[in-house]
Design brief:
Elements (H helix, E strand, L loop, with lengths): L2 H17 L4 H17 L4 H15 L2 H4 L4 H17 L14 E6 L6 H16 L3 E5 L7 H12 L2 E2 L8 H14 L4 E5 L8 H14 L3 E7 L4 H14 L3 E5 L8 H10 L3 E5 L7 E3 L2 H8 L5 H11 L2 H12 L5 H13 L3 H6 L8 H7 L3 H12 L3 H5 L6 H11 L3 H24 L23
Parallel strand pairs: 1-4, 1-5, 2-3, 2-4, 5-6, 6-7
Antiparallel strand pairs: 7-8
Helix pairs in contact: 1-2, 1-5, 2-3, 3-5, 5-12, 6-7, 8-9, 10-11, 15-18, 18-20, 20-21
Length: about 450
Amino acid sequence: MFDDLTGRLGGIFDKLTRRGALKAADVEAAMREVRVALLEADVALPVVKDFIAEVTVEAIGEKVLASVTPGQMVIKIVHDHLVSMLGADHAGINFTGVPPVAIMMVGLQGSGKTTTTAKLGVRIEKRENKKVMMASLDVYRPAAQQQLLQLGVQTGLRTLEPIMGEMPVAIAKRALSVAAKEGLDVVILDTAGRLHIDDALMAELAQIKDATKPTETLLVADALTGQDAVNMAREFNARINVTGMVLTRVDGDARGGAALSMRAATGCPIKLMGTGEKIDALEAFDAGRIANSILGQGDVVGLVEKAAEVIDQQEAEKMAAKMMKGKFTLEDMAEQLNQIRKMGDIKGLMGMIPGAAKMKDQIAAANIDDNTIARQEAIILSMTSKERQNAKILNGSRRRRIATGSGTSVQDVNRVLKQFKQMSTMMKKAGKMGKKGMMPGAMPPGMMRPGGPPMR
């Protein structure tokens, strides 16, 4: 997300910081470029106008132009205004009320409501330690209720069984009644969508809302629809009073204009964003971290959080100790690769590393993706236990056998062994220097040398 905008802004601000001293004309020229970059990123024109006007006034102030690092000061101002535009206050899901509380999911057909309902249920059970029921109120779309039932089986979430002929308001009331009897905490209501907003849809949503008194009415919007998503958010918010928004498919939106526009255009917070197809690919929307990402500063907090979810602290410390002593083996490397794959899409992870935007071409040339990591892991797993413990015994015939067993080439095997050697050498040097606390798995082995030979 924001790849295009990050690249454009990076170039603009690089020119500013290289200038040293700045004049008002320099800032104004840069802001004109920023304006074009935001518009090309699909940010709404009224939002862009307000943003540029506010930033320009502050950036050409005497304190900025007279400072030692005026370029950096301008970037800081842009960052702060981005945070303000996106919503400085982090808004979590509201569970206040007598259980079971209702969360109502609304949006147009095809926005990803049903999948997001399941993702949200998994997130609430895992992070909030609350018992969740899902209920499909979509009696119009063929197999909509069966789709949610299937997601319930897939995720292990309690899902209300449909009754033939039952209407949406009645389903919602039954869901709350059943959840109360079963001692559940949250009921997520997956409402019907339409191809466009109409009076019938809004009347039905209003009836459901009156009957269930949800603590949250979450609008699910597809980030790829750009300005259409912003217009749709305005109308939903005006007619049924949305309490928060969930952006889906942000991983496929290189422009990011919808995210930047929706909060400013509606005054309604973006609470969550879908970052992939996996059932756990739903993240809290944090304005500060998003602003950092837009300005090419990465998302270190997010990266650490992802690592914490899959890496056991004690095992990590044991691994670190081994690595510092120079006892790092191919078995350990395979474990690291496995942990990296669990953390999610590798390109998304690389985008969270500060400065990654400036290395875009080198990273692309390195051809690192989920398939690359999977092939590297397959190569190591095709080795015998003895070979994984002692890479020195891997002669030509063994390498040919490993290549055949993993469905790769001898060159691929050689690259993995070269990466392993580089990592081992680096860890030995780090150990001699007395460095502490290096987190295993923080950097994918394939990224040890950006721009190095790609694995094909």
